[in-house]
Automatic annotation (TrEMBL):
Native source species: Flavobacterium branchiophilum
Name of the protein in question: Uncharacterized protein
């Protein structure tokens, strides 16, 4: 029953989860680029 509840929650919140995932990926890429640029400067 708990699994079904989680699946229903995931389906309801899928758009929000995808949005959050994209935001996390954007942040990770940004951090990676900043670190890469700092490496070049050294």
């Amino acid at each position: 029953m708990i699994i079904n509840g989680c699946l229903i929650w995931l389906m309801k919140n899928q758009k929000d989860i995808i949005f959050m995932k994209n935001k996390v990926e954007d942040a990770a890429i940004l951090v990676y680029n900043v670190m890469f640029l700092k490496k070049i400067e050294k």
